[in-house]
Amino acid sequence: MLPPAVRHGPGEINLIMVPRLTLKSLWRLYRAAQTSLQSGDISEAAVQFARLAAARVRRSPGSDLTAQEMPNPLAARAYVGLGYCHLEEGRLDAAMHCLDAALGLEPDNAEALCERAYLLNLTGQRAGALAALERAVGAHPDHAKARRALGFFYLQDDRVEDAVRECREAVRCDPNYDSAHVELAVALGRAGRLDEAAQAMKRALELSPSNPDYHYNLASLLRESRHGEEARLVLRRGLVLNPGNVSLTQAYAEFCLELGELDEAIRAADDLLRLQPNSFAARDVLGVAYLQQGRVNEALRIADQMVTLNPLEPSHHFKKAVLFQQQGMLRNALAEFLRVLELAPESDMAGDARMAIDTMDGHQIRQIILLASEDVVFRAKLRRDPEQATRERGFVLSYLGLAALQTLDLDSLESVCSETSPPLYH
């Protein structure tokens, strides 16, 4: 009967067509399958691994095919590779069949146990996954991949020191295994040992100098440990090696903003907009940088773009309201603050919007009282129609501000003027 791994999806072959190969041909097929896998051709790799798993091995090209057959030394590896292909294509049951077949041939095969752990974890069987990895490490103490994977699992379970230990062991097993250094950096970071984490991440970057994720991760660690300028330089080097990388460009713009390098932050944010025209992150940087430079009109233009891109996001309206308020455009500011209350009435931002409206109303009411105390005509209009009277003089009150104004005794303006208006929206 054909092994189960060969009967699923890509790589399904007929037993009659199973090749009888020499060891040299066997290794050649294995290398070809690995090459297909590395190039992303999963279907071709699956076909090659399936042929390899089912292959019969002969000792030499001219010998008797039955008497001289020997066990296939690459069958377990082939099943692991085929299982990986099935996993990549989302065929989880077929992947598990392959890994079971590999473990049936080699019960302590570390690669098969690692892949099985990943698959078990993927399907919610975490205890089984952890047991598979611990078995792999127990059988192969110097297997770097198994050590790193076990460290990752320990970290997910908040066993931070255990994770650090396993990741250090992975690095010991293979000092040039960059992923092990990355996992060690993550574990050390979780342990609060940021300087050690940064050193581990630097080693990973030495092993893979152009990896954009490593630049980003190292910069994040340096930023967290308050080495902002060094973090910015790491990102800058990463962008030189990876021009046009969106994550690095965004991080670089944000780091420059934090460091107060506003012109550089604006340049980086403009670069990010060229890469992602609808980027909110770029506009956030631009808005803050323009505002800190006193370029309020340009900050307002950016806020307006953000509202246009996502009119239902209350934070965009809030930013726009604050900028209008700073420009003295109170009617526009009030409209935007009220839009925040409409979109997210129970949010913390809504509370801030109410406080802002209270402040605007309070300042204006005091000005109205002062004006009315000196202008008899205005005071008379205020009695007849407060809304029209205040609008004619350029005041912009919320409906609660108007209600509060109508409760005032205009005949005792001098005493009212000295009082502080209470919060209206609370």
Can you tell me about this structure?
With 426 residues, the chain is mainly α. It has 23 helices and three strands. It has helices spanning 23-38, 42-54, 75-88, 92-105, 110-122, 126-139, 144-156, 160-173, 178-190, 194-207, 212-224, 228-241, 246-258, 262-275, 280-292, 296-309, 314-326, 330-343, 348-374, 376-384, 386-392, 399-406, 413-417; strands at residues 20-21, 56-58, 69-70. Helix 7 runs parallel beside helix 9 and helix 17 runs antiparallel to helix 18 (330-343). The longest helix has 27 residues, at 348-374. It starts with 19 loop residues before the first strand and ends in a 9-residue tail after the last helix.
N-to-C span: 78 Å
Strand order in the largest sheet: 1-2-3
User: What is the name of the CATH topology of the domain at 1-106?
Assistant: Serine Threonine Protein Phosphatase 5, Tetratricopeptide repeat
CATH architecture tag of the domain at 1-106: Alpha Horseshoe
Continuous helix count: 23
Structural class: mainly alpha
State mean pLDDT (0 to 100 scale): 89
